[in-house]
Amino acid sequence: MEHHESFPKAINTVESLSLKPLNIFNSERRKFHNHEIYPKPNGIECPMCGNEMGDSDNITLTSIPPQRKIECLNKDCKHINYRIV
Ligand SMILES: [Zn+2]
Question: Is residue 64 included in any domain, yes or no?
Fold first, then answer.
C-alpha cells in the first residue's frame, strides 16, 4: 500500500517562527540593563517630602513578593524604602 500523505509541518519550529538563540537574547538584554542609570526614577511619590523616588539599584530582592529598594531623589530628603516588583 502506497502512502502519499505527508505529515503537516509543525507550527512551533525554528523555521516558522525565526526564534532567537538564547545567548543572543541574553547578550541583548544584558546590554539594555547595563545602560540603565541608578537611582532610576520610578514615578512613586516620596511619603516624606512628596518628591519623586527612584529605584536605588538593579537588584531585585527575592522576597515574596519580590521587592526593590527605592530612595527619594530629593537630595535634602534621601528617604529609603522598598517597593513591590
Ligand atoms: Zn523625600
Answer: yes
Instruction: Identify the pLDDT of residue 13.
Output: 56
Q: Is residue 57 part of a domain?
A: yes
Question: Ligand 1 centroid to 81 CA: how many Å?
Answer: 10
Residue 17 lies in a domain: no
Number of domains in the chain: 1
Nearest in space to 39 (alpha carbons), one of 4, 6, 3, 79: 79
Strand partners, 64: none
* 32 Cα to the center of ligand 1, angstroms: 28
Per the CB < 8 A criterion, the answer to whether 51 and 72 are in contact is yes
Is the separation of the CB atoms in 54 and 80 below 8 Å? no
Give this prediction's pTM. Answer: 0.68
